[in-house]
Amino acid sequence: MGILEKIAEIEREISRTQKNKATEYHLGLLKAKLAKYRAQLLEPSKSAGAKGEGFDVMKSGDARVALIGFPSVGKSTFLSLMTSTESEAASYEFTTLTCIPAIVGE
């Protein structure tokens, strides 16, 4: 039984049920199930989501360091000063979006 059939069955059950104090709890449960199934129809399936691109860093040298922090605090500028690489730095957030491998002291 698919989601659409379940929604139709719950709607039929709601229409058949008399509305009074004794059936309020049952109707509330049915409405909650109905809302859950309708939300499942609207959201995309989790298995069909696109995966982000990853990257691999070869193990070499003595240590590996990652600069992680808030946007616009000078991580790219620090990387450019410590290494011979040129990392893009601008006055807006999220300028550097990729991994920039570099070696200190060259």
From TrEMBL:
Classification via Gene3D superfamilies: 6.10.140.1070
Transmembrane annotation, as ranges: none
Keywords: Nucleotide-binding
Pfam families reported in the protein's UniProt record: MMR_HSR1
Domain OBG-type G: 63-106
InterPro entries: DRG (IPR045001), G_OBG (IPR031167), GTP-bd (IPR006073), P-loop_NTPase (IPR027417)
GO molecular function list: GTP binding; GTPase activity
Coiled coil regions, renumbered to chain: none
Name this polypeptide is given: OBG-type G domain-containing protein
